[in-house]
Design goal:
It contains 20 helices and 32 strands. By secondary structure, it is α+β, with helices and mostly antiparallel strands. Strand 24 and strand 25 form a beta hairpin. The longest helix has 22 residues. Bound molecules: alpha-L-fucopyranose.
Length: about 800
């Protein structure tokens, strides 16, 4: 009860009373003009409309997404629905692959890597050799005649309400537009108002790059009915529908064949629904029309204020669980596109907090229980041929999307990924059988909405059998954070299936007699043989050590499967160990090849999986490997694509080096500069703070949110570590609501780099150890109990 009151009190004060004075001191900034109250809210805001997609602002309810451009004479809402991919259910498994497997292994073990690469490329890849792209629905276009010239323009996204707002003044009339994607009513809502009556005039119409028919129905509806595209010989099997209901208050409404126009209204609300016939990865028999009609049955009956209030309540249920204050300066007054440059100068600590919360906002907006998982672009994509098809790359990117899910207190948002793993296990069973003659299931480096699992693209990228195993670690992680035994009972067969595949396919390496994956790759990195295919890359061994350990633990918790436990424990002990190479680095491969690899600063840092997201390398348990991992990261250097920078924030945090982690965050927040050819630069952020690979890829946003969490709280090494990697740049601050393994929630307040107060809440009633610097304390808990700690990490109060 106490806790609920505390939380509510905090929510009310969030945005109104951040301790700004501490922040001014923190950043070494001159105490100057205090930021306006509105600037202290979590806002992205701009003084002009978006002219390019990477300037537009994203809203989403997990399933429906829109990029809002905020134009005055012409508004564009670029629309997405998360199941609208090209193609339909298909079987890409290659019946030739199994017969070719022994020869591939022989060539690899004889060191004939290039021949192995070519052999695999010709005989063992999926047909087709690519998967299906994610596609846009189209655009809702609003034309406002005469609104070219306006004054006082402002466009903003408020992360706390998940509402985009556009406002300006034209001829003395103040116009306001609000847009949000409601997870409650399953519609995107556009609300248009003016501060005088009869001022709302506009024309609404839909457009799309899809094969679709667009027409008006009556005086208040526009309907788009379409089919998805074919791709790589796979026929489009989806039908989709988007339906816009225009509700004008006052004035008159008229229709054209494909448009609705409204004149002299006092205000207007547009409700946008969209759906496809996708029912599951193997069933496309849904009725999109029935789906959109269902969404539009109740929503038009609700007053706009109720639609908005319900949306905000549901958003805040998740969003307000974590608050973070890293200090604030007057730089927070600036339009958002000017702030990354200030951050680089060290003058805008609040931008890190904003970026942190933006990652949480994006996860809430692109991944909610029952939706598709967030793909390479979350749910926001305007292209029929997006980069890497905007699908799921599971050799880093899809996992990175979900790194903050548990730690940043959005456990429910993890559900779509966890459900996808179970679905992959079904198709992956086919791939295991057809490609390897193995039990269990396998997923290579990519998947799409059809949950395909066979190796694609080519051996350099795709011949990696460990994607499914990595994804399984998310199942265990969800259990570790929540203690949800029922979930674990459902997840265990999926984890076991992933392990069974490796029980059947691990082979003994002739030199050391270790058990290794073969063929495999250390994701996308060529070794001195000029290709990537190899046996037993370090990352595979680390992931399998985790998978086997987690299966054993799960079976123990569930009290089942003793023989299987014993079997995989034995196999686990025979996996190739982590090795330290001649530069003192953690070897990426079985052989000490790191210094001779063609791309020594490759963006993937796969062998550091054991440091993060894994926990096999820690300062206390494996100090030599800890030093070697650090050496590897130094050899890789700091530069990288957006997601690579984000991974390195997490890695430096796990190396307990807050200043280096912060340096990577600085790189991740570099503004991507524009010239006539568009936005350029490697790694960084676009004006809308979406991450630049480049091009836009959302993993870097989520990876940075995870990285900031890892700087403030870690719980992977058997204790809850407060401020394990706090950079000098954030001497004073506070964070509330971070989650730790074992079912804990932590609030921390610090000054001059030291905890001044902390509170640990346990949902499960598990004991734990809490550490800050050299001090640590063992605590026990009753379920639901909160322990408050003082600056010396002593118990101050229990409630
Ligand atoms: C992996 C990475 C690329 C890109 C792609 C989506 O293949 O190596 O950099 O992020 O996924």
């Amino acid at each position: 009860m106490d806790r609920a009151i505390t939380r509510r009190t905090f929510i009310q004060s969030a945005g109104a009373a951040l301790p700004i004075a501490a922040g001014l001191k923190a950043a070494g900034a001159r105490p100057g003009r205090h930021p306006d109250a509105h600037q202290r809210r979590l806002l992205l805001w701009y003084e002009k409309p978006a002219s390019q997609w990477v300037e537009a602002l994203p809203v989403g309810n997990g399933r429906l997404g829109a990029m809002v451009f905020g134009g005055t004479a012409a508004e564009r809402l670029q629309l997405n629905e998360d199941t609208l991919y090209a193609g339909g259910p298909y079987d890409p498994n290659n019946r030739e692959a199994l017969g070719a497997l022994p020869e591939a292994r022989r060539l690899i073990f004889e060191g004939r890597y290039r021949e192995a690469n070519d052999w695999i490329g010709a005989r063992m890849m999926a047909h087709p050799i690519k998967q299906m792209p994610y596609e846009p629905v189209g655009d809702l276009n609003l034309e406002f005649p005469g609104h070219g010239e306006v004054r006082g323009y402002r466009r903003e996204l408020d992360l706390e309400t998940a509402v985009v707002r556009v406002s300006y003044d034209r001829d003395g009339v103040a116009f306001t537009r609000e847009v949000f994607a409601s997870p409650v009513d399953q519609v995107i809502v556009v609300h248009l108002t003016a501060d005088c009556p009869n001022q709302i005039h506009f024309v609404a119409h839909l457009s799309t790059p899809q094969k679709a028919d667009i027409r008006s129905e009556g005086l208040d509806t526009i309907v788009m009915r379409g089919r998805n595209g074919d791709d790589a010989g796979i026929k489009g099997a989806l039908r989709f529908e988007a339906r816009v209901t225009v509700l004008a208050h006052g004035g008159t409404t008229a229709n054209g064949t494909d448009r609705i126009s409204v004149s002299h209204a006092d205000s207007a609300t547009l409700l946008i629904a969209a759906a496809t016939s996708y029912t599951s990865y193997k069933d496309t028999s849904g009725d999109p029309e029935a789906r959109v009609r269902a969404c539009l049955r109740e929503a038009p009956k609700k007053p706009f204020e109720k639609l908005r209030a319900d949306h905000i309540r549901e958003h805040q249920r998740l969003f307000h669980r974590v608050t973070i204050d890293l200090g604030i300066t007057e730089a927070a007054d600036l339009p958002t596109d000017q702030r990354p440059a200030k951050f680089r100068e060290g003058a805008d600590p609040q931008l890190a907090a904003l970026y942190y919360q933006y990652g949480r906002y994006l996860l809430i907006s692109s991944s909610r229980a029952g939706t598709q998982p967030a793909n390479l672009q979350g749910i926001w994509n305007d292209s029929m041929t997006p980069p890497w098809d905007s699908k799921y790359t599971v050799n880093i990117n899809a996992e990175m999307n979900y790194w903050p899910a548990e730690t940043a207190n959005l456990s429910e948002c993890h559900e779509p990924l966890l459900r996808m793993v179970a679905e992959l296990a079904e198709n992956g069973g086919q791939t295991a059988q057809v490609h390897y003659g193995a039990h269990g299931w396998v997923c290579h480096h990519n998947t799409d909405v059809w949950r395909q699992t066979a190796p694609i693209d080519g051996p350099l990228w795709g011949f990696w059998p460990t994607g499914g195993a990595w994804l399984c670690t998310h199942l265990w992680s969800h259990y570790e954070f929540t203690g949800d035994r029922e979930f674990l009972a459902r997840a265990y067969p999926v984890m076991k299936g992933a392990a069974q595949f490796f029980v059947d396919t691990l082979v003994e390496d002739p030199e050391h007699k270790w058990l290794v994956t073969c063929p495999s790759i250390s994701p996308e990195n060529r070794h001195p043989g000029g290709v990537a295919v190899c046996a037993g890359p370090t990352m595979d061994m680390q992931i399998l050590r985790d998978l086997f350990f987690q299966c054993i633990q799960s079976a123990q918790v569930l009290g089942i499967d003793p023989e299987f436990r014993a079997k995989i424990a034995e196999i686990r002990s025979r996996l190739a160990p982590m090795q330290i190479g001649r530069a003192g680095q953690l070897q990426e491969w079985l052989d000490d090849w790191d210094l001779e690899a063609p791309e020594r600063q490759h963006r993937h840092v796969s062998h550091l999986y054991g440091l993060f997201p894994g926990n096999q390398i820690t300062i206390n348990d494996t100090p030599d490997l800890f030093a070697a991992a650090k050496k590897s990261l130094e050899l890789r250097a700091d530069a990288g694509t957006g997601w690579s920078l984000a991974w390195k924030i997490n890695l430096w945090a796990r190396l307990l080096d807050g200043d280096h982690a912060y340096e990577l965050l600085r790189k991740a927040l570099t503004p991507v500069y524009a010239d006539d050819a568009g936005y350029r630069g490697s790694g960084g952020v676009y004006p809308n703070l979406l991450d630049a690979h480049p091009p836009f890829q959302i993993d870097g946003n989520f990876g940075a949110t995870s990285g900031i969490t890892e700087m403030l709280l870690q719980s992977h090494a058997g204790e809850i570590h407060l401020l394990p990697a706090l950079p000098k740049a954030w001497p004073d601050g506070s964070v509330k609501g971070l989650r730790a393994r074992g079912g804990f929630e932590a609030d921390i307040e610090w000054k001059e780099g030291k905890v001044v107060a902390a509170s640990i809440h346990s949902t499960t009633g598990t004991a734990c150890r809490v550490r800050h610097g050299e001090t640590s304390i063992a605590l026990d808990f009753k379920p639901g109990e909160t322990v408050k700690l003082d600056a010396k990490i002593r118990v101050r109060a229990r409630s």
